[in-house]
Amino acid sequence: MIKFLDLLKVNQQYETEIKSAFNQVFESGWYILGENLKRFEDEYARFCGVKHCIGVANGLDALVLVIRAYKELGVFQEGDEIIVPSNTYIASILAISETKLIPVLVEPDVRTFNLDPTKIEQAITPRTKGILPVHLYGQLADMELIHQVAKKYNLIVIEDAAQSHGAIANGKRSGNFGHAAGHSFYPGKNLGALGDAGAVTTNDDQLATTIRAIANYGSEKKYHNLYKGINSRLDELQAAILSAKLRLLDEESAVRRKVASMYLAGINNSKIQLPYWDRTENHVFHLFVVRVKDRGNFQEYLTSKGIQTVIHYPIPPHKQIAYEEWSGLSFPISESIHNEVISLPMTSVLSKDEITTVINVLNEY
Ligand SMILES: *Cc1c(COP(=O)(O)O)cnc(C)c1O
């Protein structure tokens, strides 16, 4: 069986570093808000090229905290609208609803599956206050065009950078393209912890201070509460593990691109539509997603040949029961994408043989 994602194998690359991180944290006797978190925050901020990184409990919290902080600062109000892609993982949208703002869905570019900048303007109303682009599957959204619209309408840009750690365009990293960004270090992400973890990055001093306080019960000083905050912290153990893995992230991304190049060069079957990639470092291939019309059959075929696949994502957000108020809306591009996408095995630990097997099996379909 060729696994979709062999997480044990991924983490075994770091076995020595992870075990020594565990020992160091265990023996320090200090498990929350300590030196390891501070070090990781500094390292990840430097990596992204931003002034501030705030470690939080997970990627959803990271996005929620950015929006909450903008509310505390008077930039957003309840009922304001945020534009978000209509095909994304539900967390991008949940972050907006959770903070009592209104997600306004906009269709993606059919080639990149990322928010289509040319469709944003028609969705803008007097209540629109922000755009939340998602760098889906690890490929950066067209941030230049998104910023042009944002500037024109004075909108805040919040990146969902959960899938795009380390991606680069015009010399800038994912997490440094907006006013703030939410990152996830869920174990399966390109930079993954051994549990839940996330971070916010920003160049805005005031926003960073506010997020830090809200994430820690709303207090900057112990037992003095400025906000009705939450508890959302990145613990010392996860921070130490992430520091160890961050050192090799660029190398891992390079290997993922190599795997993608092999798939793109080797897969040649008119029934299978390959992903678009401009061959730059703007894609870190969190996922390698192909489109197939009869996806059900295709997935069964791959399973029968010992190739594990996953669908990201089977149901578009506007068709989810949680958002039944949107059930009458129509987003044809997103609907067809959700009906046809399927993700092939993609990690930095796939062997050449495994990659060749995947290619051959796909070509024989
Ligand atoms: C994983 C993910 C999130 C949420 O991250 P968690 O750490 O699981 O909360 C948000 N947005 C996108 C696009 C993701 O893939």
TrEMBL record:
Region forming the signal peptide: none
Q: Which GO terms describe its molecular function?
A: pyridoxal phosphate binding; transaminase activity
User: Where does the chain cross the membrane?
Assistant: none
Keywords in alphabetical order: Pyridoxal phosphate
Instruction: Check the record and name the Gene3D superfamilies matching this protein.
Output: Aspartate Aminotransferase, domain 1, Type I PLP-dependent aspartate aminotransferase-like (Major domain)
Q: Does the keyword Nucleotide-binding apply?
A: no
Q: Which residues carry this modification: N6-(pyridoxal phosphate)lysine?
A: K189
DNA-binding among keywords: no
Q: Name the active site residues.
A: K189 (proton acceptor)
Record's SUPFAM superfamilies?
Answer: PLP-dependent transferases
Q: Which Pfam families match?
A: DegT_DnrJ_EryC1
The biological processes this protein is annotated with in GO are: polysaccharide biosynthetic process
Similarity remark: Belongs to the DegT/DnrJ/EryC1 family.
What protein name is recorded for this chain? Putative PLP-dependent enzyme possibly involved in cell wall biogenesis
